[in-house]
Amino acid sequence: MPDDAVKAYPNVMITFATFRTFVLGLFIVVTTSGFGGIERTFAPKAKAWDVWRPHDAAAEIVVDHGDWQAFLDRYVASDAVGVNRLAYGRVSEGDRAILARYVDSLAASPVRALSRPEQKAFWINLYNAVTVQVVLAHYPVRSILDIDTSPGILADGPWDEKLVTIEGERLSLNDIEHRILRPIFDDNRIHFAVNCASVGCPNLLKQVYTSDNVEALLSQAARAYVNDPRGARVDGGRLTVSKIFDWYADDFGGSEVSVIAYIDEHADPSLKAAIAGRRGSIKTAYDWALNDDPPFPSPRRSR
After folding, report:
1. Which of 143, 161, 245, 265 has the smallest number of Cβ neighbours within 10 A?
2. How far apart are CA 42 and CA 125, in angstroms?
3. Domain boundaries, the chain
């Protein structure tokens, strides 16, 4: 702000940090409504980065995910209510180095020379491993939202920070999810595979994705999340669904009706019956608490 403006308006000078906090606080208040609120407007759109479309259908290259599997085996466990939690505080320096070696090995892979199934598993595993790396680099935090490393004064979280270089291209987590996985693979089950290190997110699976198991694991993850209270639940006759179905409603048909139909298609009999008897409009919820083990006593946000 120019000096003359400060002199003229001494009581209205605010810092960028104060302004950012105010706007984000207002955003949280405004977006705690039901399905189809303003929050959906700010969710990243699927827009293909065409440089990543090439693949080799006849390729026999198999990417090694062994280090990632060993990491998951060592540090991921389910809690009493089925939330897969990661013991960030117990990760040794040696295992941090192994995780870094794994990400570096993926970065050195000839991605565009892989088969489509191999690519699909590659990008999912890369997203999840880099997310864990980011949390470890800033740990302890109560929420991934506290890692404000994305560019821009209103940045919240690490998703737009360029974190890994693949075939000469710098990529962010949002690039991987919204410019590669969603638009190029056109599979809404992707939302149940990529993990944002939060309790409200679909589980970080304890099994790595491979070209052989990716389709089966995606279907398993979709059904598991829909039938978990984090994905969909009916309380007092009112249906509450994860904000994932609102943020990315276009991937599930684009409307409240289509989202309910998708959930019903994947629901177990008890949830189907509850949905059939629901009343009122959909509510949405999402818990941003870190999927830590043991968990922090209180998250930064639960909305």
Report:
1. 265
2. 26
3. 1-30, 31-285
- Comparing C-alpha atoms, which of 252, 247, 248 is closest to residue 264? 252
Tell me the per-residue pLDDT of 52-106, one tens digit each, with 9 for 90 and over.
Answer: 999 999 999 999 999 999 999 999 999 999 999 999 999 999 999 999 999 999 9
Is the whole-model pTM more than 0.85? yes
Rounded CA-CA distance 66/77 in Å is: 18
Spatial contact of 68 and 125, defined as CB atoms under 8 Å apart: yes
